[in-house]
Amino acid sequence: MVITMVSQNILNDKNEQNNHQIIRFDKSDYDEDIVNILEWKEKNEKELELDNYSTITVEIKNKIKKFQGTDIHLDGLQRLTPEDAKLLAWVSCEYLRLNGIQNIDKETAKELWNSKCKFLLLWWLSSLNKGTAKELSNYKWDIIFLDGIESMDEETAEEISKSKCRCIYLIWLKNITSNVKEKLKNFKWIMRL
What we know:
Layout: E1 11-15, E2 20-24, H1 32-44, E3 47-49, H2 58-66, E4 71-73, H3 82-90, E5 95-97, H4 106-112, E6 119-121, H5 130-137, E7 143-145, H6 154-160, E8 167-170, H7 178-183, E9 189-191
Parallel strand pairs: 3-4, 4-5, 5-6, 6-7, 7-8, 8-9
Antiparallel strand pairs: 1-2
Helix pairs in contact: 3-4, 4-5, 5-6
């Protein structure tokens, strides 16, 4: 079971001692299965929530270097430098959330695609060019979320089709030609219908 949305009654309390988020919730709001999942999450999952930062400061760098957990949330970042991407690639985690990034250059992608994380979330990335897509194809993410991309040219689709990822989510991809569809046909991807 995958939970994609949770009630607004969930509150996050920062646990400074363990440097992770603990999720608090009102059990009366959920059925038994949801309560069991959220209780497991509260006991087992460690997240580094840094969504309020628009840049990676020295303070953030130190937190990232010390982090040992499942998720890193940096959704407030609007820009990522190659140096920042190199630091993030060093961290081993399940989810690396960079949902505020709208554009990424080839050099930054080259550093980022070396990450040890399993899932990369770039929901608001609005475009992907051939060079960046080529760097993407060099790394084996389990799943990458590129939901903000609405169109794709044939050269970019060709590079994405070489990716070692298990799945790429392209939820808002809509402005594509039959040739782009053909290039992506052997690759598991999900598109909004």
